[in-house]
Amino acid sequence: MKASRTQRKAIIAVPLLALLLLTLSSLAAEASQPTGLTLTPFGPKPSQCVHEVPNGSVVSSNQTSMRVVFPNGTVMIFPPCSYVPPSYTGWVENTYYSIPTGYSLEHYSSLWQVPGAPTSNDGQTIFLFIGSEDSAQDMIIQPVLQWGQCYSYGCAYNWQIDSYYCDSTNTCSRSPESNVNTGDQINGTINQSYNQCDRGNPYDIVATDTSTGAYSDLQTCAYPQTNVYVTLEMYNLQQCSDYPSSGSTTFGSIKLVDNFGNILSPSWGTSYGNALPSCNYNIAYSSSSITLYY
Questions:
Q1: In sequence order, what DSSP letters do the residues of 70-132 get, joined into one string?
Q2: pLDDT in the model for residue 187
Q3: pLDDT of residue 152
């Protein structure tokens, strides 16, 4: 039966309405990102102070400037960023462990699976990572799985891996992001390497998708690392469906080695932020496995 003119108009209007709603939803999501700031797993920073550097670059800091040596030998010096960070933190829930006094980190690694995508888009940014800090907590290094990160070209509402070095100068360097897929296995490692450092200890920060071979690699010269974490960090949370649809993420095969080669069995502490709305927050853990529920 041939459709009437009114029916044909309705058939055309439905997909156009759906497209309009999708466009408005996307614009609203991007508008919720902080103006002039880039969200990092060390909190929001001025966008001009978050620097993408090539894979394999070596980053170091003396708390007055950040120095980056590219793989081709090019040297960049980034001055401290004039910025007063907000008092809030996006850390929703995390575990923590401090390596005993007199020792520091040689190796930290874990495997975790890329969870299902969120079922709603409110412009949220999600970070799931292992990370480490020095004793003064002046800087942090992190292999990261992220969703909703925004760049100069727009926001990426898909899963990506990245590696970060951020310090108390409010400056961050990160290696290029790589897209990953739900169900892929991520291997995050922080490993003391044999690079020559003029500032601090050499660490290699690598996030690898073992399912596809994609990776993001940043090398650092950092203060000895003594505090380690497993963390869910979240910004622009509006509803519980903004979290990954899987409802939890398990960081398994955790391996922690100190600078004397001792394999550690950490007694994890747990911490919860004040994220609203209140969702299914909980942490289950052993020395080698941590599950974050959300």
A1: -TTS-EEEEPPP-----S---EEEEEEEEPPTT--EEEEEEEEE--PPBS--SS-EEEEEEEE
A2: 98
A3: 75
How many Å apart are CA 63 and CA 80, to the nearest integer? 8
Which ranges of the chain have pLDDT less than 50? 1-32
The owner of tokens 């006094």 is 101
Based on the number of CB atoms within 10 Å of its own CB, is 168 exposed (0-12), middle (13-18) or buried (19 or more)?
A: middle
* pLDDT for the residue numbered 62: 81
Distance CA 273, CA 28 (A): 26
pLDDT of residue 91: 96
Tokens linked to 92: 């929703």
pLDDT tens sequence across 93-117: 999 999 999 999 999 999 999 999 9
Task: Give the dihedral of Cα atoms 250, 104, 265, 141; nearest 10 deg.
Answer: 0
Lookup: tokens for 269: 């502490």
How far apart CA 273 and CA 94 sit, in angstroms, is 9
* φ, ψ (nearest 5 deg) of residue 24: -65, -40
CA 30 remoteness from chain centre: 19
Burial of 14 (0-12, 13-18, 19+ CB in 10 A): exposed
- Can you tell me the distance from the alpha carbon of 233 to that of 91, in angstroms, rounded to the nearest whole number? 4
Whether residue 210 contacts residue 115, with contact meaning beta carbons closer than 8 Å, is answered with: no
